[in-house]
Amino acid sequence: MRIILAPDKFKGSLSAPEVAKYLAAGLRSAHAGLEIDLMPVADGGEGTIDAVVASGFTRVSALVQGPTGQPVTADYAVDGKVAVIEMAAASGLAVLHNGQLSPLAATTYGTGQLVSSAMDHGCTEIVLGVGGSASTDGGSGMLAALGATFKDAAGQHLPPGGGALSQVTNIDLTGLDPRMGAVTFTLASDVDNPLLGPDGAATIFGPQKGATTAHVEHLEKSLERYFRIMANALGTAAVDAIDAPGSGAAGGTGYAALAVLCAKRRPGIEVILGLTGLAEKMGSADLVITGEGSLDEQSLFGKAPMGVATAARAAGVPVVAVCGRTTLSPEILANAGFAHSYALTDIEADTDVCMKNAGALLTEIGALIGTRLAQTGKEEENSYV
Hints:
Elements: E1 2-7, H1 16-30, E2 35-38, H2 48-54, E3 58-65, E4 71-79, E5 82-86, H3 87-91, H4 109-120, E6 125-129, H5 140-145, E7 149-151, E8 170-172, E9 184-188, H6 201-205, H7 213-234, H8 236-241, H9 249-259, E10 264-266, H10 268-276, H11 278-281, E11 287-295, H12 304-314, E12 319-326, H13 330-335, E13 338-343, H14 351-356, H15 358-376
Parallel strand pairs: 1-2, 1-11, 5-6, 6-9, 9-10, 11-12, 12-13
Antiparallel strand pairs: 3-4, 4-5, 7-8
């Protein structure tokens, strides 16, 4: 039997490659005859680089400016002319200096530096995986790193961050790196929020980055001004992008990508499935195992496990979900296409213990699946533990 292991990360516990490794160990312990392919996935956010590197991309490191100005070493991945950039590696919450949130001043400058580094490598197709960002600067920092300038009424360059955009009076894009004209950009995101309004970048995602109610108000006004000045500089492309799905992703970085970089937005898991070749490889598999830390209502809307399940169903291959915990009923899981589901909390009710001992528990679940396969040769349709 050929098994494909295509899990996402268990956030706060294990990376996607680690999840796959522990599951594989358990499967092999119970069923030595299995052929197992480890193909971890991601939805465009944290873990995206791990997923594509596991499929054959080369990891590249660059020293860039972190969200609050301190240098960080950020990885991206290259395969020929294709580069995959994980925004969180350069401009994410996880790389904040001492973990200190900075809702008004955090910048995406480092992400722009990664784009520049990818072009230095000769890449002409760049995937921007966004998610987990620490800033709400509308992608202005990214654009600044690529040569754009942002000035106030006195002609002074603005300091970094979304808060400073309340003073922007001039945006000059003429200095943008000319190499970008030969680059095709893809915005990989499962977020479809617009830039502005009650569902926009500041209101919905600002609090996750430390923004108070007053901060959110300020950031909303700053992004409104940013949009108006950008429209003066760019014209219809800026206007067309304002309400485009995904323009509010990553604190408005989606807007800069769509309007200025002429990126095309695609669901993150769809992009990863294509880059890794996972969808094509499913046809020869007997079973696909996917999952993530928390399998819940959000998982049903574009998250990695659902993307994997959809691709598996299209290939006519049964798919099993493994998770830390799930809030979904057996009926919902069955309707989503999962033949079976396994949660760490089925074995250990204490979620803190699950997170600390996730590797051992995943190995145990892998062994349980392997035993069932050894006994029956398949996962029974819609049979839930």
